[in-house]
Structure formats: C-alpha cells, structure tokens
Design a protein that fits this description.
single chain, alpha/beta, Rossmann fold, 24% strand, binds guanosine-5'-diphosphate, binds magnesium ion
Length: 192
C-alpha cells in the first residue's frame, strides 16, 4: 500500500505548541544523520518533503507531516531533531532534550515509536539509552519498532549476520529503497 499524497503541516519547538489531529502519529527517532528525514521521504516517495541534510543537528524542530495512502487512509509522520549532535551549544542541546522529552511523554497520539539505528554501528550506548528511556513510559497502546538504516553500506555477509542478530528488526536502505514496502505495510495498520 503506497503513500500517494503528503504534505508538511507545521513545525513546533515544544509540546505546548502542538496541534490536535484526528490521525495516529508515528515518530521517527535516532541519532543525527542516521537517516530519519530520508526515510520519511522514501516512505512518502517524495524527495524534499522532510529536509534531509548531511550536517548533523540541522533539524531542530518537531516537524509534522500528513501522509495519505492509496486507500485514502491517513497518518501523521513526526520528524524529530536528532539527539547526540555536536554542533550546537550546550545550552541549546539541553533545551532540546527537555522539549523533546516532554513531547514524547505527553503526546498520547503517538502510536508508534520508530527508532532508527545505523546498521554499521548497532552497539552504541546512545541507542541503548534511548531504548531504555522510551521503555520507561511507552504504554500498551504504543509500539516500538527498531529500524536498521543504510543497509546498502553493508556487504551480504554483514547483512545476514545483522538479520540473524535482530530477528524482529526491519532493515532499510533509503538509497535503493530496500525494506520500504515492508515498513509501509506495517505503518498502514495505523492509518485511518
Ligand atoms: N548510503 C545511505 N545513505 C543514507 C541513507 N539514508 C540517508 N542517508 C544519508 O545520510 C545523511 C543523513 O540523512 P538524514 O535523512 O538527513 O538523517 P537525519 O539527520 O537522521 O534526518 C544524508 O547525507 C543522507 O543522504 C541510506 O539508506 N543509505
Ligand atoms: Mg533530519
């Protein structure tokens, strides 16, 4: 089931600025540069919908997008600023973590937390911390999905090993569109 239409809704700095929508929300989380914005673009089949950049930390806002599947059912995608980026001041970074935490914990419309992990670096402490952190407040009505990105950077045997290690993972490449259909099928369950 493909996404046939998509539009940018709004950018917010914090929870108190967010709007109410009638559709389920899917948030994309992960380190800067892991491929969040690129994945949103690949899912929506629209380059440039979410701003993708090779400069870490460029996306500093909570960005909302509305996407429409071929059957007219809709979802909200939320592109979040990456955590653990270097090129912003300490004060700014603290601000962001606080705003982001509040948003993630209070926003009950979030039905699915998508945690992106670079398939070349699967043992980072920062990713483990995010997983543990989310586990503290995710409810039974919310799902956590682990996505391994940039699999085009792995050779065949590395990919086989990774899949064996993380059996419930989804493995994607935004470059050659691997895994995108599988993820779309899963996300379509939340569309209405
Ligand atoms: N090789 C490869 N590069 C990717 C992939 N996805 C994203 N990138 C590149 O990684 C960089 C960061 O991507 P971006 O989507 O901006 O990451 P974000 O900071 O998590 O939103 C950009 O230069 C992308 O072109 C992928 O699947 N494979
Ligand atoms: Mg981004």
């Amino acid at each position: 089931m493909n996404i046939v239409d998509s539009k940018f809704l709004i950018s917010c700095e914090r929870y108190s600025q967010t709007c109410e929508y009638e559709f389920c929300e899917i948030v994309f989380l992960g380190r800067s540069n892991v491929g969040k914005s690129s994945l949103i673009n690949a899912l929506a089949n629209r380059n440039g919908l979410a701003k993708s950049s090779s400069t870490p930390g460029k996306t500093q806002l909570i960005n909302f997008f509305e996407v429409t599947f071929a059957d007219k059912n809709k979802l909200i995608f939320v592109d979040l600023p990456g955590f653990g980026y270097a090129k912003v001041s300490k004060a700014k970074k603290y601000d962001w973590n606080k705003n982001l935490s509040e948003f993630l914990q209070k926003r009950k419309q979030i039905k699915c937390f998508i945690h992106l992990i670079d398939s070349r670096h699967t043992n980072l402490e920062i990713d483990e911390n995010l997983y543990n952190y989310l586990n503290q407040f995710i409810t039974d009505e919310q799902e956590y999905i682990r996505i391994f990105t940039k699999i085009d950077k792995l050779n065949q045997s590395e990919l086989v090993k990774l899949k064996a290690k993380f059996k419930s993972g989804i493995f994607v490449s935004n470059v050659n569109k691997k895994g995108i259909e599988q993820l779309l099928e899963k996300l379509h369950d939340y569309a209405k």
